[in-house]
Specification:
The structure is a homodimer of 156-residue chains. Chain A has two domains: 80 residues, Winged helix-like DNA-binding domain superfamily/Winged helix DNA-binding domain (Arc Repressor Mutant, subunit A, Orthogonal Bundle), CATH 1.10.10; 51 residues, Dna Ligase, domain 1 (2-Layer Sandwich), CATH 3.30.1490. The first copy, chain A, is 40% helix and 21% strand. In chain A, a hairpin with a 5-residue loop joins strand 2 and strand 3. The first copy, chain A, binds a DNA duplex (30 and 30 nucleotides) through helix 2 and helix 4.
DNA sequence: TTTTGCATGGGAATCGTTCTGGTTTACACT
DNA sequence: AGTGTAAACCAGAACGATTCCCATGCAAAA
């Protein structure tokens, strides 16, 4: 219902596919999903939605600022809800887990660099790829580890 | 000739396609190229090289550490020679120009964040997208502007 | 409730990239 | 220089992700 007004505010009709997709992306455990992931989630819910529609809707959501698209290594896009606070990403190349962090100092330095170049920044992205703690320790991913939430890592 | 030994050192046979591709990437004005760009450059030179070969060779070069692959927005990969010094990128979404910069403070903070998470970082990339000075001022790109070289922007 | 036009679904098309299979080539060893 | 062999090549087919096409469906304005 609130979703419905979210869509209207973005200039989009509140259609069933759009509401369903928004609902899926809003689930807390669904932080980072590919279009395929969203499509499968819809099928699991028994919804008859075409893959083309999923892509179309996700792109519309991106343009409307509702979701953020990331181009991780490997060439496929992943999407996450835009919940306001900007953050950067750490991706485990072994287990695929994605951690988020925000570092004000990094943001500030980026701003400075752009200023120096006379560059007007629309968006920026910082990705680190590597192996997460769980993989290093036990050879399995640390999806259950007590980190990976926004703002969890703020050194100093 | 020196290219030939570069290849051997990387454990790759010094074949004509590889030498030609290396030669193209080494031209100073060819900083950031897609596989397609490289392919077209070869055709322009009158070389009979298949696109598949270009992709294969670029991937081999990447694995050998000779070139670096970037996943910019838009889903296509761009390649640049690995000239040793790590640097980050600023991309003008209007004219496509790519500027490079290096900020030790950002690097250090990244290292810290990874450490805090117990994450072993293999690679990292930082991209800023926006509009460059030339576009803002005159509506045309600033490819000829006196910046855009590595290390040009180091605030503070 | 009727109208109107944007949204949908499914399949085909497209894009960038990788694989396949048969042929050619670089290079170590005569 | 001559030759064997593994590696590299080419063209084209295959591939996965994404977008296009268009007849039909449906949200929302009248």
């Amino acid at each position: 219902m609130s979703d419905s007004t979210d869509l209207k505010r973005a200039g989009l009709k509140a259609t069933l596919p759009r509401l369903k997709i928004l609902g899926i992306l809003e689930e807390p455990r669904a932080r980072h999903m590919t279009a395929e992931d969203v499509y499968k989630a819809l099928l699991d819910m028994g919804e008859e939605v075409g893959l083309a529609t999923v892509y179309r809707v996700l792109t519309q959501f991106e343009n409307a600022g509702l979701v953020i698209r990331h181009n991780f290594e490997g060439g496929r896009s992943v999407f996450e809800m835009n919940q306001g606070g900007h953050h950067d990403h750490v991706v485990c190349v072994e287990c695929g887990e994605v951690f988020e962090f925000y570092d004000p100092a990094i943001e500030e330095r980026q701003r400075r660099v752009a200023e120096t170049l006379g560059f007007q920044v629309d968006s920026h992205s910082l990705y680190m790829y590597g192996v997460c703690l769980g993989m290093k320790r036990e050879g399995k991913c640390s999806k259950t580890a007590a980190m990976g939430t926004r703002g969890a890592a703020e050194p100093e």
